[in-house]
Hints:
Blueprint: E1 34-37, E2 42-45, E3 53-58, H1 69-87, E4 91-96, H2 114-121, H3 128-148, H4 164-176, E5 180-182, E6 186-189, H5 205-214, E7 226-231, E8 244-246, H6 250-260, E9 264-270, H7 272-289, E10 294-300, E11 303-305, H8 320-325, H9 330-338, E12 346-348, H10 350-370, H11 381-392, H12 397-409, H13 415-429, H14 456-470, H15 474-486, E13 489-494, E14 497-502
Parallel strand pairs: 3-4, 3-9, 9-10, 11-12
Antiparallel strand pairs: 1-2, 5-6, 6-7, 7-8, 13-14
The chain binds adenosine monophosphate and zinc ion (ZN).
Adenosine monophosphate binds at residues 59, 61-62, 70-71, 73-74, 269-270, 272-273, 300, 302-303, 310.
Amino acid sequence: MRDPLLDVSSLYVPMFFPFFAGNTDTEGSKPPLALYNTMGGVRERFAPLKSDFVRLYSCGPTVYDSVHIGNLRAYLLSDTIRRVLRYNGYKVKQVMNVTDIGHLSGDGDVGEDKMALAVKRAGKPMTLESLREVADVHIASFLADIDAMNIKRPHAMPRPSDCIPEQIALIETLMDKAYAYETSDGVYFDTARFPTYGRLGDIDIEGLKEGARIETHLEKRSGTDFALWKKGDEIGWDSPWGRGFPGWHIECSVMAMKHLGKQIDIHTGGEDLARVHHNNEIAQSEAATGKQFARFWLHNAFLNIDNTKISKSLGNTLRLQQLTDAGYPALAYRYWLLTAHYRSPVNFSWDALDGARTTLKRLHRFFFEDLASSDKGAINADYALRFHQAINDDLDTPRAIALLWELVKDEHIPRADKKATLLDFDKVLGIGLLRTDAEHSVPVTVSPIALKDLPEDVRLLVIARDEMRDQKEWKKADELRDEIASHGFTVEDHPEGVRVYRTTA
Ligand code: AMP
Ligand code: ZN
């Protein structure tokens, strides 16, 4: 997807950049919400279709396996937009599908069904019940992952296997309107009948047609036509076109319309989905209803691991559980993701995660220990406005986090107000300040160890490091910090002096 704004430097445009110039209808000092819309490829001012209610649809997981940490970036985007919308005072209804049937391993209409493969892998008989059982296991693990990441559960998480009649009805509508045709192996959407097909993103339609032709059969009228219904498989449901199962794309149109109506405000997903899946969603929905399907399309860029694309065949897939098993709380991963803009590609490394854990730990200690006894304060209006400007600037979470640290260090803000303001920020960032369940959080109950209680060798190292710092011998001080760490202790420098903790996972 071509993205002229992907250059990170361009994300730091002051809030009132020309796009907003002349906007006079902002409510007091409330900054307008601007989102980068993949449809059209520009930032646009967001307002819901109907008063203050936002209909949000997010493409969800195919539950044939546990999700990997790259997938979680997509769900964090849907969570962030939802939180930002709430922060702006909108009511939000969020729907996310959970694909439990019919997602082929390729983008086109060939390849094996991922769910059927999972049933085989589980050694179960190929029945609809087995499909359901396999899906149930992975839905539970998906929910555990998003809970741990403090990603709010969508208001509805429909499954296509529960909506077969609705999917058949939509295909019938498309047949009646001559947007679909039947072949010996299924029912296909006729993309030539939909003149604006492929308008989402910077799509090379000719290339797409060419690519699709390679994996197509002679009965398809055009390479970009896609299956609405696939006939005859080992298992399936009865339909006017024989036994089979719905094509993958139709489910999202059906579920969005069933739970949100014919038109939705915002649709999210990973950038890989724009080209085929989302263009197909648009075509079949708009052909059926004659109305614009989604007004804003938000796509997150990909996460790579050690500069390599996540891929099962390369064996470099990482799951959240592996991070937590290695001692990295899910919230540290969330914090790290938020330090990058959702449209910037990111590269995961253990070192990066390690840094995020340390920083988040420092924040939690400051908040839960240093500010513990602070009174009820007031949200600082200046910081709140700047925070609001950052998140309303196409969800600029890196800027919001930089601001959070500016606030932490700002000595002019009373501690009670700092606390209230940080709590306000956490409504959007969700990095554990509002949470009371420390279980998934970074441990915060650890108290610093008094110098006299440290093992003698560590105590001497800490004193030596302090001396080096006094003499501004930073390199030597850093070496001593590493030596202290090798004994299982962490030192932190605070205005009132050094604090030493036992290193925890
Ligand atoms: P899938 O189960 O493959 O359909 O993916 C679920 C969601 O995760 C989709 O929104 C994908 O676009 C997104 N996704 C898949 N891989 C990555 C990745 N490496 N980085 C970010 N998002 C991803
Ligand atoms: Zn979808």
